[in-house]
User: What shape does this take?
Amino acid sequence: MEDRRQHDRKQPDESLFVCDVRTGAVIGQVANMTEQGVMLLADKPVRPDTRIAGRMLLPNGINPANTLGFEAECKWCVRDQNSGSYQMGCQFHAISAEDHLSLRKLLATWPELHSEIARF
Assistant: This one.
């Protein structure tokens, strides 16, 4: 698989979860993120090409609402043979200017991911 990232992946230093805006259900836990997209660890598979309306609860101090909303498309989803969970790569498609600024502030606090294990 060709790596098309234009930004370095960053790994969260705490547990962050993405929830479905419509249902409130947890879609997955953030494994790593760039300004272009997010890799999630999920209990259930998501079919590639599925559109996701997600919201993430942020650490204090990133923005007044402590949330980040976005629309993304699942580009790939594979089962991790060791854990049984699913790894899914999602590309951001719609994110407000305010949420994009919050995303950049959040990513600036995280270390770069140097491992080739995760692929988004």
Q: What stands out?
A: Residues 17-108 form a domain with the Thrombin, subunit H fold (CATH 2.40.10.220). The helical segments are 97-108. DSSP finds one helix and six strands in the chain. Strands lie at 17-20, 26-33, 37-42, 51-57, 67-79, 86-94.
